[in-house]
Amino acid sequence: xxxxxxxxxxxxxxxxxxxxxxxxxxxxxxxxxxxxxxxxxxxxxxxxxxxxxxxxxxxxxxxxxxxxxxxxxxxxxxxxxxxxxxxxxxxxxxxxxxxxxxxxxxxxxxxxxxxxxxxxxxxxxxxxxxxxxxxxxxxxxxxxxxxxxxxxxxxxxxxxxxxxxxxxxxxxxxxxxxxxxxxxxxxxxxxxxxxxxxxxxxxxxxxxxxxxxxxxxxxxxxxxxxxxxxxxxxxxxxxxxxxxxxxxxxxxxxxxxxxxxxxxxxxxxxxxxxxxxxxxxxxxxxxxxxxxxxxxxxxxxxxxxxxxxxxxxxxxxxxxxxxxxxxxxxxxxxxxxxxxxxxxxxxxxx
Length: 350
Prior knowledge:
Elements (H helix, E strand, L loop, with lengths): L1 H16 L2 E9 L6 E9 L31 E7 L9 H13 L7 E5 L9 E5 L7 H6 L3 H20 L12 H12 L4 H12 L7 E4 L8 E4 L2 E5 L6 E4 H7 L21 H12 L5 H27 L6 H7 L2 H12 L6
Antiparallel strand pairs: 1-2, 2-3, 3-5, 4-5, 6-9, 7-8
Helix pairs in contact: 4-8, 5-9, 6-9, 6-11, 7-9, 9-10, 9-11
């Protein structure tokens, strides 16, 4: 595919970066819903660059200030492709949201081009600058001392506050009901557990008053962040972005799965305590958080992960995607049930 993909990329990059050649095209591992490629763009000549158009001037979500930084060793770029569906944001919407988040001060990759049409490269696509750094969480943890963990935790809170300041208007974002959505996903499987059912009922009975709706990332967690020697370099994987309550992002960052084996005392992404994280967010966002509302959302986030685990297991059990990895994820349903029972009884990470 890379032989066909390279000239296609050269064609879609020409209006943005000028006449370039695509080299070192490599498919990367990881990514459940998108396929990711790394490559470099090299200028064929010093002339031929094109000014990128603004969001309002084109149906393609391109950067407002691209230049053809493609000489020398080339410009490192990332290509993400994926078919359109009803769950994930389109490529153009992802690009627009990242541009809005960047304008609000969030560290995100610079968008070069995006298109929802599969015509150019065989699938909807997004192209952005490559960001140097590490995404594998256990490697990140090995490189952090206590001070480094504290710094990264504060940077995560600051980035999330910036994301929530971004303007979500006029770009096609939806505002789904998170609890109802996961209820439907579980019903589609046709299987449940007593703990899940009890949790759904308790959450419905104790639902807090809604807070203001903001742009949310939807999957803000360790594993979707690039970390370099200075700390947080970029927030990745925006395909679940939507309009929602800020507590959704805050709580998702703090479930057990994203601690990657770190102790409960480091309940916020394996970096620090949940309370430290919430206080850092309050400082960065100049707001006050309701701890009871956060706890309700933390229970929703934990239930969400449990339903995801059960869904992944079903993909294996049904024969849709036979996989030892999916089967292993399914075994984490019981772990999630334990966490839910602890949260509902007043325990859990602090």
